Amino acid sequence: MTKAQIIELQRQVGTTPDGFWGPKSTSAAQRHLRALMPKVSPWPASDSQSLRRFYGEPGDESVIVSVPAPPFLRLYDTGKKVTRIRCHHRVADSLLRALFDGHEKAPEVVARYFGCFVNRNMRGGSKPSLHAYGAAIDLDASSNGNRTHWPIRATMPIEVMEAFAREGWLAAGAFWSRDAMHFQATR
């Protein structure tokens, strides 16, 4: 992002618009997104016990549904139309609402789908990914990679993060300062 874009983002999240993104700006972005989330989170905490109690065992295909993808969804790398999204049945409606809402604000970003249910561990880890529960989605991976710092290098718009926040989903970019493509249904 340019200095001017960072200043605008700082204004949006309610912190001093000085063009420097540091801990105060990160905290402001997190407060801003948390303020948009439902007062009582519909999602579990992110520890293994809470996830299993709420979603079941990672990789359990019996709780995964295949929902019609919004008509604007395309594979991020090939542009091929996505017709179905496989996700946990408990997140399906919320995920679709967040996608449609985010698409209204940033259509070119939300249209670049990178995946939802994938039975795998976290990158570089031994614990199951939220993707293994069908409770995470990745969007616009080419501009928002796992090791790319948000918002300095990653370009995920705050408006997309806000769309997911209204559904109670965490935006990795704002909460981890990296992996801005990743959104998960946890609190």
Question: Care to describe what's here?
Answer:
This protein has helices spanning 3-13, 23-36, 48-55, 92-105, 107-110, 158-166, 172-176, and strands at residues 64-68, 74-75, 84-88, 112-115, 136-139, 170-171, 182-184. The chain has 187 residues and is α+β, with helices and mostly antiparallel strands. The protein folds into two domains: 1-36, no CATH class; 42-184, 2-Layer Sandwich (Muramoyl-pentapeptide Carboxypeptidase, domain 2). Helix 4 (92-105) runs antiparallel to helix 6 (158-166). It starts with a helix and ends with a strand. The model has no long low-confidence stretch (mean pLDDT 95).
Write the layout of secondary structure elements.
Elements (H helix, E strand, L loop, with lengths): L2 H11 L9 H14 L11 H8 L8 E5 L5 E2 L8 E5 L3 H14 L1 H4 L1 E4 L20 E4 L18 H9 L3 E2 H5 L5 E3 L3
Parallel strand pairs: 2-4
Antiparallel strand pairs: 1-3, 4-5, 5-7, 6-7
Helix pairs in contact: 4-6
Side by side, the strands of the main sheet go 2-4-5-7-6
Span of the ends, CA to CA: 28 Å
Beta percentage is 5-15%
* Structure annotation, total helices: 7
Total domains: 2
| Topology-level CATH name of the largest domain | Muramoyl-pentapeptide Carboxypeptidase, domain 2
